[in-house]
Amino acid sequence: MTTQPSQNSDQTKETFVSVNSSLSLSRMGCGTWAWGNRFLWGYDQTMDLDLQQVFNLAVSRGVILFDTGDSYGTGTLKGRSETLLGKFTQEYQGPNQDKICIATKLAAYPWRWTRHSMVEAGKASAQRLGRNIDLVQMHWPTANYFPWQEWPLLDGLGDLYEQGLVKGVGLSNYGPQRLKQIVKKFAERDIPIVTLQIQYSLLSTYPVVELGVKEVCDELGVQLIAYSPLALGLLTGKYQENGKVPRGFRGLFFRQMLPKIRPLLQGLEDIATQRQKTMAQVAINWCICKGFIPIPGAKNYQQMEQNLGAMGWRLSEGEVMELDKLTQKIDKQMVQNPFQTK
Q1: Where is the NADP-dependent oxidoreductase domain (predicted)?
Q2: CA angle at residue 6 from 19 to 220, to 5 degrees?
Q3: Which of 39, 123, 146, 160 is most buried (CB neighbours < 10 A)?
């Protein structure tokens, strides 16, 4: 895996990461879970113009990786996130137009249990996108509940690659033991696993600290992607213990978590003030310093502009160590993805 610096000689301004000969990702991406999700993020179709502005701003500034999933949007909004990304990609004209990378995750639904069903799912996603998928990913493993289902679905991802319908294959929510098994089996087909996406933030270090997934990925040449790097918004500094919180489930969860993570938020704020950055920018930059590609979401131009401010600089080793210490001291109760394997 090689890193391609931008034209600026400052290595902190590195822009792209090449994961194979035909696929490059940006050092930070944009997660699109909220682009179609009503329950958690309150999506409605009046937001589409704002989302298109997010897309245009991101691409123009070098954030060319957009992570989506065929489960992002249900019912009448089935595949809404992919549909929007397809529309925005086709209509965008500007810098980095030819570099846009769409990474989608195919869900391990109970009714998908053959390799053919996974190939058909990939083709359906490509149809919504109006283009081939660049990076296809297994959305979650079934090893914890239906182990017999998993290998056929993984084989289907390999079929998509062999048929030239995708440029790369990745995984999501896998631990190091399972990752090694899959990499070994895919190597028999001469198919590299190029990325692994896990829940990772200052509030969610379990896969790295407890499972040691970073060392295994480095050994295997697998690029790590961090989803929820802002912990659903807890690390933005936008929400206070006795202040306004989001509606619904997120609000209830925030009320429980905010008092418990007060020392971490204070440490984030201190570093942000010294750096003249926002707390969100510091939290995202911490992920970058750890060797991850973070994929924070954005629902409007201002949020994307803030996320972009996390790029082009690096926290010092001392600042990273201080944040690491704070994550170890707090009573971490961030909900982990139940599908995460060891």
Answers
A1: 27-326
A2: 20
A3: 160
